[in-house]
Write a structure and sequence with these properties.
Layout: H1 6-17, E1 42-43, H2 49-52, H3 61-69, H4 79-89, H5 94-122, E2 128-136, H6 139-144, H7 146-154, E3 160-162, H8 164-170, E4 182-192, H9 194-199
Antiparallel strand pairs: 1-4, 2-4, 3-4
């Protein structure tokens, strides 16, 4: 396994449990010192849905990525990259959309169950908190996430739209940040210390 980040560590662990002889190669002196050190630590089944089905509008795929998913496309895209973008963004019928959403949500839910099982089995104690708060900075941004909220509602995933005052009660540090238009609270999601989990 190349890399002792969270993906490498968990992959190696599962392969070893299945009886394989595993070697993990890491360029630094410890596990999870790269991307796994500073990621958001979001453990979410809710936010898989927007990725599974692309919203359809008159905007370009590039606009959708920038405004909805926070992704910036850089130079050096390969033919495979462009093919994925085309496949992801092309219109899909209702049956295909349902299949994509169900598959993404089932995979994320299974992953959450596995995580909880490992926590209990190995008695892992790492920093984590319940709930996930997403801030929406402007009214224009709120229009862009309407597709996400509709997706959550259609799939019965609980969420609450909060006023700035309500959001600050959940996360007081927001009072020191830039103004926000509103916030979305996902009670069933979690956030945790990814590096600490990987080291354990």
């Amino acid at each position: 396994v190349i890399g002792a980040g969270i993906v490498g560590i968990t992959t190696a662990y599962e392969l070893a449990r299945d009886g394989h002889d595993i070697s993990v190669f890491e360029r630094t002196g410890a596990a999870a010192e790269g991307a796994s050190f500073a990621n958001t630590g979001v453990m979410s089944t809710s936010m898989t849905l927007p990725w599974s089905v692309a919203p359809h509008s008159n905007r370009t795929a590039l606009d959708l990525f920038r405004s909805l998913h926070g992704i910036t496309l850089k130079k050096g895209l390969t033919r495979q990259d462009l093919h994925w973008l085309w496949s992801w963004g092309k219109p899909a019928n209702a049956v295909t959309q349902a299949i994509r959403k169900n598959a993404a949500h089932a995979l994320a839910s299974y992953s959450q169950c596995q995580l909880q099982a490992k926590e209990a089995e190995l008695a892992l104690e790492f920093q984590h908190s319940a709930g996930h708060l997403l801030t929406v900075p402007t009214q224009a941004s709120h229009r862009n996430v309407a597709f996400v909220l509709a997706s959550l509602k259609d799939n019965g995933i609980p969420f609450t739209e909060l006023t700035p005052t309500q959001a600050i009660k959940i996360e007081p540090a927001l009072a020191l940040s830039d103004p926000i238009h509103c916030a979305i609270h996902l009670p069933n999601d979690r956030t945790g210390n990814c590096r600490q989990f990987a080291l354990l």
